[in-house]
Amino acid sequence: MTDTDSDAEPTDTEPETASDTTAAGAGGDTETLLVSSLAESSGKTAVALSLARLARAEGDSVGYMKPKGTRLQSNVGKTLDEDPLLARELLDLEAEMHDLEPVVYSPTFIEQAIRGREEPAELRERVREAFETLAADRDRMFVEGGGRYDVGGIVELADADIADLLDARVLLIAPYEVPADVDDVIAAAERFGDRLGGVVFNNVSDAAFDGLETDVIPFLEDRGIPVHGVLPSERELSGVTVAELADELGATTLVDEGQDAYVERFAVGAMGADSALRRFRRTKNAAVITGGDRAEIHTAALEAPGVRCLILTGGHRPSGAILGQASEKGVPILAVRTDTLATVERAEDVIRSGRTRDEATVDRMQRLLSDHAAVDAILE
C-alpha cells in the first residue's frame, strides 16, 4: 500500500486505498495473527488451531479464517478446503464456509486469473468483508495462509498481501534440516518486513536440533528475526502408517508384517539396481514405489534399513523369493493397479492429508507448542 500526503489532491483511487488500509478496523480491537509457512505440509493448520484453542483456554473469544482455500477436495466447481471445515468443528464456530474460505484457489481459478478473468481488487474486497464478518466481537482472529507464503501472488493475495490487508502480525512456520534452509527464512522475513512477529521451526529431527539451537537461532535473532520455538519431530505428525496408506491407496497387501510402521516420504525406483541401493540407503521412513516387475529394485529396497514398505505398481505380483525376503525382514509389500506416476501423486496426497487433519493431531501439536514454544510471546 502507498502512503499518501495529507496535502495531496484527492483522487478517484482514495476510497479504495482507504478501504484497504482500514481493513484492520473491520475487527475493531481484534488481535489478528496470520500463520504462514515456507512449505506445504509444514504443520501450519495444526499450529493455527492449537494457538486458537490455547487463546480460548485463557478466556479469549477466537475466530478463524483461511482466505485462500488451497487444500481442495477437487479441482473444479464449488470445492472446499478441508482446513476450515476442521477449524469450524474444533473451535465451535458458527460461520459460513464462504466467509471462512472466501477464495477457492483451485487450478481452474488460477487459470482464470492468468487469463485476466479475476480482478484482484474485487478479491481483496471479498476477503476484507469476510474478515469483518468473522472478526465481529472476537478478541482474536487466527488467519491461515496458503500452502506456502508466496501462494496467491497471481492475484496480489500472497500471505504478505493478506497481512497488510488485515493488519495482521505473522508467525512463520519453517522446516529445518540443514543450515542452507536459513536462506528461505531470511527471504520470507524480508517479504513480511515489520509484520513478522517470529518464527517457529517444526518437525526438527534430533540430528538437526543442536545446530539449530547453537548456531542458527542466534544468527537469526542477531538479524532481528525472533525465534519463538523449536518443535521436535514426532512420527505421528510426520506421516501415516503403512496400514493407513494401504487403505487410502486401495492397495492389496501382499506381505502383512510391519504395517504399523510410519511412512514420511517416498522414493521412486526408476533407476538401475546399484543406483537404487545407494539412494535407498540414504533415506529414512520411506516407501519405495516401483513397478511390480522390477525384481532388482525390490531386492535393493529390501536391503535398505530406512525403507518401511514397497508399493508395487501396474498390477504385477513379485516372485515368491521377494515375498519371502520381505516377510523375513518385516517389510510390508502393497500392490496397486495404477501406474507409478499416478501412485506417487496419490501417495503424496495421503501423506499431506495425514499430518494435520483430525482433533488428535491438533491435540499433539497443542502439547508440543506448550512444551517447546513461547506461546505467550506468540500471542502477545
Written description of the protein model:
The protein folds into 2 domains: 14-236 and 357-379, P-loop containing nucleotide triphosphate hydrolases (Rossmann fold, 3-Layer(aba) Sandwich); 240-353, HprK N-terminal domain-like (Udp-n-acetylmuramoylalanyl-d-glutamate--2,6- Diaminopimelate Ligase, Chain: A, domain 1, 3-Layer(aba) Sandwich), CATH 3.40.1390.20. The chain has 17 helices and 15 strands. The protein has helices at 14-21, 44-57, 82-90, 97-100, 107-114, 120-135, 159-166, 182-192, 206-222, 235-238, 242-249, 273-281, 295-302, 320-329, 340-353, 359-372, 375-379, and strands spanning 31-37, 62-65, 68-69, 103-104, 140-144, 169-174, 196-204, 227-232, 240-241, 252-255, 262-263, 265-268, 286-291, 307-313, 333-335. The strands form 4 sheets. Strands 2-5-1-6-7-8 form a 6-stranded parallel β-sheet, sandwiched between helices. The chain has a 5-stranded mixed β-sheet with strand order 10-15-14-13-12, sandwiched between helices. Strands 3-4 form a two-stranded parallel ribbon. Helix 13 packs parallel to helix 14 (320-329). The longest helix has 17 residues, at 206-222.
